[in-house]
Inverse folding.
């Protein structure tokens, strides 16, 4: 064993190999050295496990290849993946894909200085969100607008300012739990608002709200159930009725809309529209910028000027403010939303939701045809349904055609793991013992790329090594 251990190359020897020298041209030396030490530790463990048997020390070239693989697959910030799950707004995969115009705006603002908080006309300090808020007012007809970093932040800010130490009345049927196990009652508690529940899980009437209003009532809260649906023996007052009740008692109404639908589509027919909330006269509407609006993650507050002026002055507003990247991408997205037809053609989320079954069937057929030369895979086309995702339009299945893959020897879970391990990971969904790739959540330009990276692993001429593309 000692003789075998002495045959293991040193760190310097591995650094001197051709493959690692090439690696150093692209990667920081400390990262490469850590990978070398980890690779050599693995060799030592193998030597000891085999008691120094012949062949337990691999050639230097093999160790160098292992180092390169460790560097390539090390944990980084974010990696691009192909979303073939059929879930258009997939929270785990970054939710809304940005329009090309929004991406360009991000790139333009990234390399250097920009007029984030500078008024170029006066040379004085300006508001970082004033311009994008003006666009929101023009687009929606709202009296005032304010932008923060996500919708949860928008809700927290509004509750803290309007109801801290006082009562906020909400229906029991709207005490929702959102992603990550965050629950509305817990969020309200942290804002300092006192939760007053009214009605029952399935039926809440206007009289329930009115009976709860007292001298300590600060707010009537309406929460859109964006990630689940109630059917059957259910009842709730309209938003207009709630606003009228609040006006009679001098109590503002906050509508947590969530998804922020601006332009209706067939796929979102049951989703409430932003403009309907504003027309109802609510004091504040909160919504996301990255769901059905199709922009970057952001929290958007719209409503009456006196209320939003109070929110801007709240100390929490500094903690939840947006950066220049959010502002740039959101402004570009709002420009596209000015025209409904242009928005549906240019904003990827809206374009994906508008895709027809015939279009998706043709795309699936093309992907399946590109994978026909993979002898290890059984490939077929299957009619199924996509999802909107992102906590929007719950239980709404969208007809689609997916490419279903079965491997000759691997289970569906193992095949899905292989696809995630590709140089450009492909994320599908598992159903009926097969991995399905749904073109609805892919950009049309990614269809051929998706097939190519899978072929590189499973075609007859592929390398057969996981992670190579």
């Amino acid at each position: 064993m000692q003789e075998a251990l002495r045959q293991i190359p040193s760190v310097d020897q591995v650094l001197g190999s051709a493959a690692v020298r090439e690696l150093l041209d692209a990667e920081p030396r400390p990262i490469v050295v850590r990978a070398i030490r980890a690779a050599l530790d693995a060799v030592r463990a193998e030597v000891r496990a085999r008691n120094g048997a012949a062949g337990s020390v691999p050639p230097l070239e093999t160790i160098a290849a292992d180092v390169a693989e460790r560097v390539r697959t090390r944990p980084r910030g974010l990696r691009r993946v192909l979303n073939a799950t059929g879930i258009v707004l997939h929270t785990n995969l970054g939710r809304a894909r940005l329009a090309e115009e929004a991406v360009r705006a991000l790139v333009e603002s990234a390399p250097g200085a920009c007029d984030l908080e500078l008024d170029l006309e006066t040379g004085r300090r300006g508001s970082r969100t004033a311009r994008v808020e003006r666009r929101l007012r023009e687009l929606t007809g709202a009296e005032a607008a304010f932008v923060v970093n996500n919708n949860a932040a928008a809700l927290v800010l509004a509750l803290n300012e309007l109801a801290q130490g006082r009562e906020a009345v909400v229906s029991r049927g709207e005490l929702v739990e959102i992603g990550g196990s965050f629950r509305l009652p817990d969020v309200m508690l942290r804002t300092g608002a006192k939760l007053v529940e009214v009605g029952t899980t399935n039926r809440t009437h206007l009289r329930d709200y009115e009976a709860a209003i007292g001298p300590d009532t600060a707010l009537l809260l309406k929460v859109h159930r964006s990630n689940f649906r109630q059917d059957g023996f259910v009842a709730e007052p309209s938003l207009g009725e709630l606003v009228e009740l609040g006006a009679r008692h001098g109590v503002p109404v906050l509508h947590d809309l969530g998804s922020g639908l601006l332009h209706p589509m067939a796929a979102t027919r049951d989703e409430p529209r932003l403009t309907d909330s504003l027309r109802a006269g609510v004091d504040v509407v909160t919504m996301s910028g990255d769901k059905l609006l199709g922009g970057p993650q952001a929290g958007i507050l719209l409503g009456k000027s006196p209320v939003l002026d109070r929110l801007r002055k709240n100390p929490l507003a500094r903690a939840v403010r947006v950066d220049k990247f959010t502002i740039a991408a959101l402004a570009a997205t709002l420009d596209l939303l000015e025209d409904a037809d242009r928005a549906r053609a240019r904003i990827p989320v809206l374009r994906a939701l508008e895709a027809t079954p015939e279009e998706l069937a043709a795309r699936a057929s093309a992907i399946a045809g590109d994978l026909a030369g993979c002898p290890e895979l059984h490939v077929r086309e299957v009619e199924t349904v996509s999802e909107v995702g992102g906590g929007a339009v719950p239980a709404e299945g969208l007809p689609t055609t997916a490419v279903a893959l079965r491997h000759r020897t691997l289970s569906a879970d193992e095949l899905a793991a292989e696809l995630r391990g590709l140089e450009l990971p492909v994320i599908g969904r598992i159903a009926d013992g097969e991995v399905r790739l749904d073109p609805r959540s892919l950009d049309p330009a990614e269809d051929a790329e998706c097939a190519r990276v899978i072929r590189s692993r499973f075609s007859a001429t592929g390398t057969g090594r996981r992670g190579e593309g």
